């Protein structure tokens, strides 16, 4: 006899049934997961947003502003008036107050190192951060330089050169952003670090060889400020020329 035993046939049918049930379950699971992750999730069957969908999306976007990176940026902004008050307390020359001012400045510089890194690493980049971060950077550095020059510790021309470069390059970045983004160079990062160290040393009431050392550190910061500024101007000119050339070529192809 070549017939299949009843037990085997039953087992085969059971297996097929099991497979059918599993496939059905998988299908339901896929449908559920697909509907949950689909771009149209939160919409009605006719493609209209579900009631409250826009409000929920807005709430999520608003909540994303309150992340660690942005909070560090906000802290840096709050530290600016506190730094100025500490810097000018006691007539501006009290070593104790100057030490506290240096601590506030150091915290601001440290948060500057971390907030951008955190935002890029953990995908916490927001429109608020893009605007507030450079403002906070310029605010704390500008406040320190202006205070030091007002107290006679730093020549005004140094403050004008550094702040003029910073504001000028920031404005130039906005002007050429239609053609592309000018990336931060290693020289620019070294300039920022040198400026922070030099200004921090001037905030402290240093004497002797440390006072001489801070003079040379500030001199290096000024040189890096000018050199990197000129390099950014060169990059902006090249970027603009490339952008204009690409647009012209695209227009000619369209007309042809």
Topology of this protein?
Layout: H1 6-37, H2 53-64, H3 68-88, H4 95-121, H5 127-150, H6 156-175, H7 186-203, H8 209-255
Helix pairs in contact: 3-4, 3-5, 4-5, 4-7, 5-6, 5-7, 6-8, 7-8
Structural description of this entry:
The protein has 256 residues and is an all-alpha fold. Helices cover 79% and strands 0% of the residues. The protein contains eight helices and no strands. The chain has helices at 6-37, 53-64, 68-88, 95-121, 127-150, 156-175, 186-203, 209-255. Helix 3 runs antiparallel to helix 4, helix 5 packs antiparallel against helix 6 and helix 5 (127-150) packs across helix 7 (186-203). The radius of gyration is 31 Å and the shape is globular. Residues 1-63 have low confidence and may be disordered.
Which key terms come to mind for this protein?
256 residues; mainly alpha; disordered N terminus
Q: What structural class is derived from the secondary structure elements?
A: mainly alpha
Give me the number of helical elements: 8
Any low-confidence stretches, pLDDT <50, length ≥5? 1-63
Distance between the termini: 80 Å
Describe the structure concisely.
With 256 residues, this protein is mainly alpha-helical. The protein is built from 8 helices and no strands. Helices cover 79% and strands 0% of the residues.
